[in-house]
Amino acid sequence: MTQIIKGGNLPLSGEPMRVAVVRRSGGAEAPKVDAAALLVDADGRARGRGDLVFYNQPEHAGSAVRLLGEAQGEEGVVADWLEIDPGRIEDSVERVVVAASCDGGTFGEVEDLYVRAVSATTGAQLALYAVEDATTETAILLGEFYRRNGGWKFRAVGQGYDSGLPALATDFGFSASEDEADDEVEGEDEQVPEVVPEAPVAAPAPVPAPALVVVDKADVPVPYSGAPIAAPLPRLNALPAEFGPEFPYFEYQGEGKEDVETGLTLPRGFIAVDVVKKGSGYLDIVTLTIRKRRWRQVVRSRMDDLRGVGVLHHDGQSPLRLRIETRGRWMIRLRPVSTLRAFDGPVEGYGPDVLAYTGDETGVRFRFEGDEDKKGYFGVAAHRKGGHWEYRFSRRDRGRGKGDLPRGPRLLVVEADGAWSMEPRAGGGGGFWSRSGS
Questions:
Q1: Within 13 Å of residue 298, how many CA atoms lie on the same side as its CB?
Q2: At residue 339, what are phi and psi to the nearest 5 degrees?
Q3: pTM of the predicted model, to two decimals?
Q4: Measured in whole angstroms, how far is the alpha carbon of residue 389 from the centre of its chain?
Q5: Which of 158, 230, 369, 377 could form a disulfide bond with 211, CB atoms 3.0-4.6 angstroms apart?
Q6: DSSP label at residue 191
Q7: Contact, 65 vs 54, CB < 8 A?
Q8: Chain centre to alpha carbon of residue 284
């Protein structure tokens, strides 16, 4: 049985998971609920500012925990989805705490609140905990995923806070005041955080999934990882619709060199491509012509245990064909560019990535940590509607630099052989705890 009560716990397999903070919306006057996650060490403390994943910082540096966005279901059901991949969590992290904050009211006013974890591979339910005793809380610790005897377990917690998300984070040793300085001291002796341990490869046999998975309280929209995925995630950026089509996710898995005949003829535009590759060796993905000749580059990398994002431009006429060249097992997933991360503030990554930029002309500060030998390449190209692109800035070997971006909308294609970070040089609005866009 996967539904547990407060204080209960369940064993987990350690597979990648999707975790939903679910509630029923009471209309425009209902409190606004936001999901969050904290990564904490053996002492129950967050190691730094980057260990909080929430609306203003939607991804952990190593991509082990990501905030995917909000999905709407029938009868007012709303779900904020997180993605948690235990295989990518650093050894120094003992627990991942799933929490939620409430703006414009208290959790006592939120209907049918519960947290639900499902397998990212099969969509099967792993755990469900319904909160039934909330009153005046404006933040709540829903549950936690924790290490136990070499594996992982989930515990239903249900601990509330009357002072919002900052108070909850402070309880875990997190300190980030509104006026905290953002700039770091430059220098070669700077300590670089450890990021991205071994990247897992999805199971070899994808299982079809329904658009909605039925639980005892309501039908919850599930951003399922299958082939194809029936319900795409909500738009996560402000790219115009003509940049790329909306479509269900499609996932393909294989080993070694392979030509993938997708059978898809989607409308003209950009398509995002998630890539997971197990083991060492070079990876190269290109589109193919009808005669199976190499056409356009999608992503390439020499990184071990790669987990990254590439992009392709589809002509909207012939069926999409891809060639994957590598050693070992791999998985690729096609998804709309509307689900890419937005570059509207500081972002961090590890390896190749693609970001959506819709702002004005701006300067950019970046930092590149390189590979294990502190070497490698980092570069950013800006793609316009129609597939036209130009390189904007780059660097070889670790270090800092500056560049500039033209006015959006653009897709920013990042080539990187290790950890990197970027942020706009123009001033932003609001402090760390201020919810942007609300």
A1: 28
A2: -100, 5
A3: 0.52
A4: 25
A5: 230
A6: P
A7: no
A8: 23
Give the C-alpha separation, 66 to 36, whole Å: 9
Question: Residue holding tokens 């123009």?
Answer: 426
Helix (H) or strand (E) holding 54: none
- Count of helices and strands (H, E) across the chain: 1, 30
Confirm if 154 and 10 have CB atoms less than 8 A apart. yes
Spatial contact of 311 and 298, defined as CB atoms under 8 Å apart:
yes
CA distance 93 to 43: 10
Q: pLDDT tens-digit profile of 5-57?
A: 999 999 998 888 999 998 887 666 778 899 999 999 998 888 887 788 888 88
Strand partners, 402: 365
Sign of the CA dihedral with 362 first, then 376, 305, and 244 last: positive
Per the structure block, which two tokens stand in for 48? 């730094």
Share of the chain above pLDDT 70, in %: 81
Q: What is the mean pLDDT of residues 102-114?
A: 89
Mode of pairing for the β-strands spanning 3-4 and 125-130: parallel
Backbone angles phi, psi at 356, to 5 degrees: -100, 125
Q: What is the number of other CB atoms lying within 10 angstroms of the CB of residue 170?
A: 14
Strands 219-221 and 212-214: antiparallel
Cβ–Cβ < 8 Å for 2, 102:
no
272 or 78: which carries more pLDDT confidence? 272
Query: Which residue type occupies 123?
Result: G
H helix runs in 111-223, sequence order: 164-170
Burial of 178 (0-12, 13-18, 19+ CB in 10 A): exposed
* pLDDT band for position 387 (cuts 50, 70, 90): low
Tokens representing 352 are 């190749």
State which of 32-36, 153-157, 343-347, 384-388 shows the largest mean pLDDT.
Answer: 153-157
Structure tokens of 103? 């703006």
First to last CA, the chain: 38
Place of tokens 């491509």: 273
What are the two backbone dihedrals, phi and then psi, of residue 88, each rounded to the nearest 5 degrees? -105, 0
Q: Which neighbouring-strand residues pair with 410?
A: 357
